[in-house]
Amino acid sequence: MELFNLLEKNGKIQISIIHYLLDKNLTADIPKLLIDLTITSFLFNNNVEELTFILNDLELDLSLEVDHEQNQVTLKKSNQTSLDKLYYYYLQESIKYQILRHLYYHSSYSIYALSQKFLISEAAVYRHITGLNQLLDEFNLKIRRGRITGDELQICYFFFQLFWNSVPLEEIQGKENDHNSLLFVSFLEKKLKQPFGSTTRLKLYLWIRILKKRTKKLNNPPSVESMTMLSDDYLDDPVYQLVRESYFLSVSPSAEFQFEYKATYLYLFISSLFVIERSNRFLLKSDDWPTFNTKVIELNKMVVQHVKTAYQIDSAEIDSRFIQEWKYFLTQLHSTIVYFKGNITFFEEQMLFDRLVNQSIFTPNFELVQQIIQETEDTLGFSLLETTKQLVTRIHLYFINQMRRFSKLTIQIGVFCSRDNLQTNIMMESIKNEFDTKFYIHCEEAEVKKDYDLLISDSAFGIQQFSFKDLYIINDFKTQADIQALTRLLKDYSKKEGI
């Protein structure tokens, strides 16, 4: 779900103008902006006027300036400006967002009551709910008969995602007024012997508040279809045992918060969604995957094996700290897609995905990631949502890029400057700075007894002593022509050799 889709029409236009200007380095020609955003001059002028007032009222250190002579618009911002409060302002003005908040705070609604509350017709309420049901479909939830329906774990997860990704974190922190929930977070921290960071504490506090709020709406423990994804293995997980013990020690027998499944919900939350910092997850032995879920372990091992095979990586060559870090990341990712459905961002996951695509270093790995995703779906027994695929693709591309550091498959580049040895070092640094983040290269001063894929030199003099497949004569690495030509060479070689 993209929160942008919840906004009213003018809100969408105004946020689009802001983001357009951010992408255009803060200044844009108005005629080009109108074409790219497909809005009229009338709509632009009206929305810029309203947006200027809103920015001034919110005191965000953001402002718009229109230069009528140059026919340009400029966004002025400080380096410390966050857009979270601006997004939240527009969401609070959105009727769809207000309906979702109403469903969280109230057990039910009537169409008439909502029409009176929002000063719209009953037909308009029906249209908004129909639109919301389309957005909720990825969470396998639906609004009907006056309430939100579906698996209880999914409902809790949806509201967590909604608030965590819409409300500024400072505001969530400012609402930490539930003393018992705060005490429980501190108690859990001591039981797990895990020093919680500020983000972890806030995530746990919000999750616990949601569990308590949802419990008030239930007369009996819900049927939880998501729990079928769990095998009995998790009962042996020391994390689960400590979470369950902490939970039941913290609630009285008559407390409304006391349900067995709530302890499991807490465990699932802590085991996924990147809640516990990776540096603190030491309750399991360091050589194990940090989970007892056999399905998650199977997915983890499958991803690692695919990458090791594709890039001829020897496990013994992988840094131990890297292994621990990525055991955490892969376990959190796969636990999330096993236990939960759907994801919330403000803008489309596709936009983040497309920006990653434009970084050439990731391009050769797309086919490998598609194979991994297909095998993931086969293992899970269901197809991933398109937004989930994009999220998984982004993380796997990053993982593969990190793993490639330990691969034997790199473009070997030798550098030889016949006039000046110092110039060789300068040229090597320049090449590394330009191409290290774009291609898989190993660059060094050329040695006579080594084989190179590419030799880069300042002249043809003396190159006969070296063994190389391709040669490029460079002009001190100072021209765009050199950079573009080397870029083409490295792209072609990467594609040809599957690097």
From TrEMBL:
Q: Record's superkingdom?
A: Bacteria
Q: Extract the InterPro entries matched here.
A: BglG_antiterminators, Mga_HTH, WH-like_DNA-bd_sf
Q: Does the keyword Transcription regulation apply?
A: yes
Which residues does the UniProt record annotate as the domain Mga helix-turn-helix? 80-163
User: What keywords appear on the UniProt entry?
Assistant: Transcription, Transcription regulation
Keyword Transcription listed? The answer is: yes
User: What PANTHER family is this protein classified in?
Assistant: CRYPTIC BETA-GLUCOSIDE BGL OPERON ANTITERMINATOR, TRANSCRIPTIONAL REGULATOR MTLR
Protein known as: Mga helix-turn-helix domain-containing protein
Q: Lineage of the native species?
A: Bacteria, Bacillati, Bacillota, Bacilli, Lactobacillales
